[in-house]
Amino acid sequence: MKAYKILIDGKWINSESGETFSSLNPATEQALGRFQSGNENDVNRAVDAAERAFETWSSTPAPKRGEILLRAATLLRQEKESLARLVSTEMGKVIKEARGDVQEAIDITEYMAGEGRRLFGHTTPSELRDKFCMTVRRPVGVCGLISPWNFPIAIPAWKLTPALICGNAIVFKPASDTPLCAIKFVEILQKAGIPPGVINLVTGSGEHAGLPIVRHKSVRCISFTGSRETGLRITKEAGIKRVGLELGGKNGIIVMEDADLNLAVDGVIWGGFGTTGQRCTAASRVIVQQSVKEKFEKALADRVSKLRLGSGLDPKTDVGPLINRNAVEKVQMYVDIGVKEGAKLLCGGSRFKGRGFFYQPTLFTNATYDMKISQEEIFGPVVCIIAVKDLDEAIDVMNSVSYGLSSSIYTSSIRSAFRAIEQIEAGLTYVNSSTIGSEAHLPFGGVKQTGNTREAGIEGINEFSETKTVYFDYSGKLQKAQIDS
Length: 485
Ligand code: UN1
What we know:
The protein has about 475 residues and is an alpha/beta fold. The protein has 15 helices and 21 strands. Strands 14-15-16-13-12-18-19 form a seven-stranded mixed β-sheet, with helices on both faces. Strand 3 (about 20-25) and strand 4 (about 30-35) form a beta hairpin. Helix 1 packs across helix 7. It starts with 5 loop residues before the first strand and ends in a 12-residue tail after the last strand.
């Protein structure tokens, strides 16, 4: 079986640990290759290489950095189909969604390439004469980027491309479930002309490869997407550095009685069961107005029961496998809890007996807002219906969770839509569409326990640049702000 390496200072080498791990195809449980179990020594070498490379990369004109990213976007486009097949094989995503994953990486890479000719600061008048005020952007330094497995090409691209265009050097640790996608993505960036040492890639566990990055004194910025527990640990371990966190979600879709119910059913199917529910933007709660509950529930259950479970590579599949065995155990645990709590199981509720990490698309109804299945992130194909009497109660239920990433409302009332936009505590609110499908040029992120940052769009640039304020006095005399007039 092929053994892959880590990338330090432009060279693919073995880890000093001498140990490896494997990545499995979740549909077949077959190993795709051996990967290096990186450790602290590897991380230290990666950070040293990044610090050295930072000097020349940060002083390379940003439009030139942009040209390299544009070449990377072209290469990604050429490799789109093979990368999508890899995403499907390593992560299990159905092939159409895997193509979307790669497309999202292409989009953000093109967007960030264009930023090379913007990277705007601003100018503003001074309160004194003959004095000029402006801001300029500076790179942060060495950035530690830690990415999840659920968007194994797109999320690395969300982090690497803005960090690169701003002139930072990188130590990148991808999720242990999808190291091959990360390696292929970085190979493309290398091929496009990113100089040696600017991107260093260390595979391995959170404990042995992730933590040394988070703790390293010379790493100035951490960008992490993943679980709340790990996010919390990072804030404790990072010391004084920038930490951008994108953690979980318990996203809801509100369905009002004046909604187009067929459209809402489509939205729940896509948001709840797309990527097998393994998105931090997945819709795991449907908050439906009592007057249409029965009708809506029937239509939804009918659709859920027809979803076809299978390998992501089979074009007939609607829902692919979960990422690994632990995920199957976790989903089963929550389903058992839901039944115990008194929610009514309408569809699914059990794992698949054969090979592969499959779990049936599962729908609960008669859930209440405070049940565990309505409060905690399950990260699997499980949706629960909660009935409410009106919009006020719907918004209260929506906001009753500790997370605040995505949200959606189906209604034909402009008034209800705008109240939802104003009152839902979330980073994203969709009107008459599902909770998923953010675009590369708009900010993405959440409030409350979901995190403290926004990625993509111009906010992605803010995450990876420092703003320097410049006061330029050409009066030729000592002028004192706040004192001289
Ligand atoms: C995630 O689930 O971690 O809006 C990110 C979406 C995707 C990104 C999701 N564009 O669902």
